[in-house]
Structures are given as C-alpha cells and as structure tokens.
Specification:
It contains eight helices and nine strands. It has 236 residues and is α/β, with parallel strands linked by helices. The chain has a nine-stranded mixed beta sheet with strand order 4-3-5-2-1-6-8-9-7, with helices on both faces.
C-alpha cells in the first residue's frame, strides 16, 4: 500500500542527460519514465516539475553578461522542451501525460490552470508542470514547492544524483553519513544544501515534507512511495 496518494516529483534537467555532456539521453529518459509508470500503476497520483540545466547550461556561455531576467526566461523555455520530451516518452510508454506551462505557449502546451491540473491527477494522468513559476529570479525547486503546495501533494520528492542528504559531501569525505530524516530547521542550521532557500522556506511553512533520493538507483522511486527507508526525509 503506497504511503503517499499524491506526489510532486522534482527532476533536475541534468537527470535526463545520463552520461552525455548535455541534452536528453533516450535510454535515461525511458528508464525514468518506467519508474514513474510503476508508481502510477500503484494508484499514486504523480505530478512532475523538471529543470532545464541539461539544455540551458549547454548554451549558458552565451548568457554571460546577459540580463538575469532574460537568462531566466531562456531557462524556463528549456524546461518546456524537457517537459515535452518527458511527456512524449510517457505517452509512448502507455501513460497519459499532460504538460501545463506557466508561460503561455498555447500552440505547443496548455496553460497551467490549477483546477484542470487537479482534474487530470484525479483521472490518473501524469501532470508535468513546465516553465517553472513563470517568473524570473525563482528556481525550479521553488516551482516544485509552489506546485506541490497548490495541488495538495503529500510530499515533494527531490530526485538527485546522491541517495539522500549527507553530513558532508560523500565524494570528498569518506566519513560522511546519510541522514534518514532531518528537520527543516536542523538542515538550515547545518547549512545542508537540500533546496534553495525560497523553496525550503515554502515547504517548511506549508508543512510539506521533502524526500531527497537518487533517481539513478533502480526502484528507488517505488521504495520512496511505499514508505521504505530510501533517501532522506526533511520534515517540520
């Protein structure tokens, strides 16, 4: 029996690269979609927010000296591209995906409308939220926290390259230990880089727990959804 009825999955754009330098690795996106399909079949309602670092960082040299707002809008458009690729892969895998954008591009994706998103989730469709919050100066972490709160998600699942939150960088410190759970206040006091400060504060204020886990560990998403000891739970 799943521990969570409705989840918000936050994927970094880099998660789609696999071992490539940038862009979207087909085998990687298909594997991630397979993991999402598995939890969707369990009856879990799944919403996704994805970053754009795999695309925008590939051209980010051109953003040096650029106005921050302009660069942020370019990043939002990169998330739309990733969302379309993810949605296409999901539909081909037998899921029904809907991409909803915070920026109006109605010939390509439908606009984000909260009641419509809730309806899709209740129908068992996977909803992919594109274009971040629609505003510059906010990260896709903040978009995940915001959309998670808006749709009444039970938890935000932050999929990363590491299998949880550690006391130190496990790549640099062999003595680093993984926290099974930690409070928001404790994580902030220890300056653990879980999410950006705005996203973190929003999750804490809305009593929206965050689970940090590795999307590269096979079956990890299912184990998280089932409430098993996987990753790190950040809670109030």
């Amino acid at each position: 029996m799943p521990a969570h009825k409705r989840i918000l999955l936050k994927l970094s754009g880099e998660a789609l690269m696999g071992d490539d330098a940038f862009g979207i690795n087909r085998a990687t996106i298909e594997r991630i979609v397979g993991e999402v399909a598995e939890v969707n079949r369990l009856g879990v309602e799944v919403a996704v927010v994805i970053g754009g670092g795999n695309i925008f960082r590939g051209v980010a040299g051109g953003s040096v000296g650029m106005e921050r707002a302009t660069a942020d809008y370019m990043g939002m458009l990169a998330t739309v591209m990733n969302s379309l690729a993810l949605g296409d892969a999901m539909n081909r895998a037998g899921l029904t995906a809907r991409v909803m954008s915070a920026i109006a591009i109605e010939q390509v994706v439908e606009p984000y409308v909260r009641p419509k998103a809730l309806q899709y989730l209740e129908e068992g469709k996977v909803v992919i939220f594109a274009a971040g919050t629609g505003n510059p100066f906010f990260t896709t972490d903040t978009a995940a926290a915001l959309r998670g709160a808006e749709i009444g998600a039970a938890i935000v699942l932050k999929a990363t390259k590491v299998d949880g939150v550690y006391s130190a960088d496990p790549k640099k410190d062999a003595a680093a230990t993984r926290y099974q759970s930690i409070s928001f206040d404790e994580a902030m006091a220890r300056q653990l880089q879980v999410m950006d400060a705005t996203a973190f504060a929003l999750c804490r204020d809305q009593n929206l727990p965050v689970k940090v886990f590795s999307i590269f560990k096979p079956g990890a998403l299912r184990r998280v959804v089932m409430g098993e000891d996987e990753g790190t739970l950040v809670h109030v």
